[in-house]
Design goal:
The protein has 507 residues and is an alpha/beta fold. It has 14 helices and 19 strands. Helix 3 crosses helix 4.
Length: 507
């Protein structure tokens, strides 16, 4: 009877659900099993081991754990029904994120959405079993929830609408939800909440689940979450520092292209899962997966201020920093280089030219209060939105990074659509910087700092400033920094060549 679940679930509806939506990302069973493979397998032969999924969606984590326990406990509990009752009553626990997912999870785990009903494979005294769902309200402090940071304007809703106030992270006492300790906490938490900002602006929320789980001090913690925390930003800086300096993280598997993990789901920056071991510390085994190829290294996660996901890139970064040159982030402007928002448009008259996303026109100098020192220089600009991102690098698996690069002549300014990468007194130096930016070496180093489509000043922190009185090519740069043939091959496997006509023309 060890193939009980295999016979019960055919075809695997949870594999189908994993491809449905980007709103709540369902985890494919094969990824769940990769996460379970990280755990000591003797856990599945111990009838005292307890498991918690604090963010149940489809129930796939608990279902796959049950399959392993049914096999692992066969010798200790030979009777199948006795074994089933023991596993589902004493070892598997879940907290659903919505009422709908609670029903779906119970159906997946107990073969019935009502575990006290006639069709449940094990009988409970209530309709929840060990998969709980409780309607929780946000705790408003001003305009934000004190627990998750949700905005009152977005989520202060009536009872008929989902509030996304998740029970596991809306309490200071998570132990009291089940009044027990857990050996393993595992899951795929919700990733973000709309923050009421412009367009599709959203704030991350997954880190709250990781931090809350650690408070329960399980023996093992494993979750699958977006990889954008590698670089921090948008409320993730503290979480990034916490994770990078946590030597209890013993294994990290990173998918640069999220679609290789979640088919059809585009997550900017990719996705990763990790194993945290309460009772062991040391270096982390890091596996990076890109274009179906994987590369594994064992290293400390905090070697750099951000996490370098691919171990092959580490040696290139070391070489780029080896000459102690200033880095490009010291000269790149911050957002709004001339103080003008994206929706600013040319005026009827003016002695300057304003470049905006779809054209250009006159603009008065006396309306500019920012960037006055570079108005009369030759400025190299790039769009603040990347051509591609780590979560979706393109059909060939290679990244272009930049859209067109432009040179603005003196007395030409731009909106927030662009950032200024360098300012010069002569056109030749500007052309040389633009040529440098087109090299694979430059764009590779920028890409190591990019986990979203946003191009900001900090993305240039690994790129050394050159002497722009002379032109730069990849060959010249590889020679200068001692980049080996293998490293060149790696860079070229990651970065798509950028032709001259892609670099953009003068404004």
């Amino acid at each position: 009877m060890s193939d009980f679940y295999a016979n019960t679930y055919n075809p695997d509806v949870l594999s189908c659900l994993a491809n449905l939506s980007n709103d709540e990302v369902f985890t494919p069973p094969d990824i769940v099993n990769k996460m379970l493979d990280m755990l000591p397998q003797e856990l599945f032969s111990d009838k005292t081991t307890t498991f918690l999924d604090p963010s149940c969606k489809s129930g796939v984590f608990l279902r796959e754990i049950a399959k392993r326990l049914l096999i692992g406990l066969e010798s200790e509990i030979p009777d199948l029904m006795e074994r089933i009752d023991h596993i589902f009553h004493n070892q598997l626990f879940g907290i659903a994120i919505t009422e709908m997912t609670s029903l779906l999870s119970r159906r997946s785990v107990y073969c019935s959405k009502y575990p006290n009903g006639r069709y449940s494979i094990t009988q409970f005294d209530d309709a929840e079993g060990n998969i709980h769902f409780k309607i929780i309200k946000h705790v408003w402090r001003g305009e934000k929830c004190a627990f998750c940071g949700a905005t009152k304007g977005e989520y202060d809703r009536g009872e008929t609408l989902e509030s996304h106030a998740y029970e596991f992270i809306h309490t200071t006492k998570p132990k009291e939800i089940f009044n027990m300790k857990f050996d393993v906490i595992i899951g795929n938490p919700p990733y973000q909440l709309s923050d009421g900002g412009h367009g599709v602006s959203a704030k991350p929320i997954y880190h709250h689940f990781v931090q809350q789980a650690k408070k329960l001090k399980p023996r093992f913690l494993t979750m699958i979450i977006p990889s954008r925390w590698f670089a921090g930003g948008k409320g993730l800086n503290d979480f990034r520092n916490e994770m990078l300096n946590d030597t209890h993280i013993r294994y990290l598997c990173d998918y640069e292209n999220a679609m290789e993990c979640f088919p059809g789901v585009d997550l900017a920056g990719g996705v990763c899962f990790f194993l945290w071991n309460r009772d062991a510390q040391g270096e982390c085994e890091v596996t990076n997966i890109v274009n179906s190829e994987q590369f594994t290294t064992t290293r400390l996660l905090n070697e750099f201020e951000i996490f370098i996901r691919n171990g092959k890139a580490v040696s290139v970064i070391h070489k780029a920093k080896s000459l102690n040159e200033k880095m490009m982030n010291t000269q790149v402007t911050s957002r709004k280089p001339f103080g003008l928002p994206t929706n600013e448009r040319p005026k009827s008259h003016g002695d300057l030219i304003l470049r905006w996303q779809n054209g250009e026109g006159a603009y008065p100098r006396n309306a500019i209060t920012t960037g006055l020192d570079i108005i009369d220089k030759w400025n190299v600009i790039c769009a603040k939105t990347a051509y591609d991102h780590a979560g979706s690098p393109g059909k060939d698996g290679k990244r272009k990074v930049f859209t067109k690069l432009h040179i603005l002549p003196p007395k030409t300014i731009c909106t927030e659509t662009y950032i200024v990468v360098g300012s010069f007194d002569n056109e030749k130096a500007a052309e040389n910087l633009r040529g440098y930016m087109m090299t694979s070496f430059f764009r590779f180093l920028v890409s190591q700092f990019m986990f979203s489509q946003d191009i900001t000043r900090d993305r240039f922190a690994f790129v050394p400033i050159q002497d722009f009185s002379e032109p730069w090519t990849d060959e010249k740069l590889y020679a200068k920094y001692g980049i080996t043939e293998d490293e060149v091959a790696f860079i070229e496997s990651m970065i798509r060549p950028m032709e001259l006509n892609e670099g953009g023309g003068d404004a």
